[in-house]
Amino acid sequence: MDFSTGFLRKLLPAAAALVLFFIVSAVYFAPQFRGEVLPQHDVLQYEGMAKDISDMRAATGEDPQWTGGMFSGMPAYLINVAYPAQLVKRTVGQIVKAIDTPAGFLFFAMTAMWCMLLIMGVNPWVGIVPALAYGLSTYFLLIIGAGHITKMWALVYAPLMMGGAWITLRGNVWYGAAFTALATSLEIGANHPQITYYFLLAMAALWISEGVFALRGRRMKDFARRTAALAAAGLLAVGANFAPLWYTAQHSKETIRGGSELASTSESSDSGLDLDYATAWSYGTAETLNLLVPDFMGRDSATTFPADGQTASLLNDYGLRGAAQQLPAYWGTQPYTAGPTYLGAAAIFLAVLGFLLTDGRTRWWILAVSVLAILLAWGRNFMAFTELAFRLLPGYNKFRTVSMTLVIVQWAVPLLGAFALMHLWRGDVARERLLRALAWAAGITGGLCLLLAVAGGSLFGFGRAASAEMMTEQFRQIFEANQLQEYLARGMDVEWGEATAAAMAADRIGMMQADAWRSLLMILLAAGAVALFAFRRIGKYALTGLLAAVVLIDLVPVDRRFLSAEQFVSPRRQQVAPSAADRAILEDRDLGYRVLNLTVSPFNDATTSYFHRSVGGYHGAKLARYQDLIDRHLSQLNGGVLDMLNTRYLIVPGADGQPEAQRRTTAFGAAWFVDSIVPAATPEEEITLLGEVNLRTTAVVAESALAAAETAPRQMQPDSCAAKRIDLVEYRPNYLKYTYTTPEEAVAVFSEIYYDKGWTARIDGVEAPCFRADYVLRAMRLPAGEHTVEWSFRAPAWGLTEGITGLCSGVILLGAVAALIHALRRRKKENAGTEASPAPKTEN
Questions:
Q1: Are strands 766-768 and 759-763 parallel, antiparallel or unpaired?
Q2: Disulfide engineering: 600 pairs with which of 363, 576, 605, 642, CB 3.0-4.6 Å?
Q3: 577 near 629, Cβ under 8 Å?
Q4: pTM of this prediction?
Q5: Are 378 and 283 contacting, i.e. CB atoms less than 8 angstroms apart?
């Protein structure tokens, strides 16, 4: 009876936490449980880019590992490849499927943060508050709305990985190593290397901190043992995901992440993204204040000025009704933003309180990595530091959107808040010290909010300068759109622009001030709850409940500004339906032709791939050579390059504004014979020649490829192509079969993307050499006669990589089971020892 009572008491906070997390998630995403769905841009794009992969799996059961539906063909490693040997992901990782997304995202994010805090010694009741703060920070809702699925799962698993590192370095090393290996395997398996990389920086900060304190305490031998265990756990986790990591690393060299071969200087040709491209989305230094005040920068790029604001009133006076809805309230430095990374004013207050109350071993590394994350997020706004990071941090130059580093701060703030609450829960801080820390925390955070609310309008520009610059461009467009050319003729646009700039700034100031007062209120509510506890007016359970309520009141209304129940739609509205143009093109049953859709942004949209083999697509790691082709030729609609890609159809806006199919009669077909070869000494010359030679009769080939392939002479018999024929007779994403006839040995160019790491060519079943032609395509020297050419794709060394993956996965699972059994037996012995101990004698 006593055992069961004790067990239930221990189970109660866990049950309460999980029930609360589920209720919050389910209420927030209530339409999901009514059968409605959330339109998510990246999910829709993903369905398009993976369509031919999923179709082939369904039809044959085979995983193609290549897609032919996007960018004329590319490896599927960063899209959708099945790795059966990822046993951790396929077993333990299936737990997250217990609750469907998007509600599952919030539930498991909060649960993972709560579990991490439990590992770190935080009371399960206390852990509820920071877990809510982590799961409800606005960035999560923004990426859920956008459909950044892998990023969200990586942020779910990241706290568990950090918890494993914590216990390995500061607790039971073997339990910690087993848990770290398991959690890190799931984190890597989420397949968002950028998020994993940032949390590895946080782990490095923890490791350095522990090393410093171990050195001071003369515990270096123990620290070395723990470091070895942590490294072994990390290696096992990498091994458990070896196959996807191997192929991603191999493939990334060929993508835009590996740099372009057209780079003209040794410095710019280093592997990695171009610095300007990588830092396009950089947080402004002042913009960082929206961590505390959500509308500091005017909310998101889609938010316009209110109908009752000064901007709308002024434009109405000029006869431009509705023009205020064409001007952005956002005035930050990012080219576009879906919303601010708001952490919660109450959460930040608790974090400052935690920093003031926590010991140095616990707080300094958290502060250090948070500051690092903010500096990295500034990107081009602090270019000296960013360039240094690109040079010194291994692999950092592979990632774009540097503002994403703020996920570390999003995690660190609730963590410090949890430590603050643990001090209050344990009662190990003297009241005088607590009140002093409370005053400082409220003074710093609340004082900043008060300053912004009262005097913030005079401290920042609020886009006045940007508005003044815009008046000769964007304002002029508004005049013209509203057919008010008389204002332009009279020069009234300048006067109007200056007045509108001032009105826009005033509206933005109003938005900021309203949220500054709001944040101040949240801080006062949280500080008030702590003060009541300090003066013993409420107990620790009431304190936890009050702070949980404040966090919910603080974050949920702000989250709903960016993702609300109103955005859910019927599943039928989310289905991708073919247009009349799509249906017309699908009547063409020939194999191999491609489509370029000009009714969308063709190289930033994958929906066309849902129905056709597309010349365009949507992916952040497309092949670098194909990106070169887009930049130099496809964006200018170079006819010869479109022909070599067998672009048979264009989808263009019709007279009625609806998509219309337009057939091109000049496309070269799935393959063709050429009668001459033009050598190119450099990649620059190679891509330039594509716009200068007749690609139907001439192949442009790099001199190095000519030598390596031992190909046919550069000049064949003129006009001999007329007696030759080559046809595509069978097509799957990873398999193509051609039949051909030629009276003499000849060179054929195939309208398929060249990729030498997996594609194999065979002539009548015998493997044959191939080489790259026309910058991105495949070519072969074919013998005379009637023959069959087959191309097949298979990831190289598949058996070996899967074997390593399966072996390491098995070791992790066995280690986790062994650790769990050992912990249960140890707990059983401890309980048995407690029960066997005689009760202490008492004196009468």
A1: antiparallel
A2: 605
A3: no
A4: 0.89
A5: yes
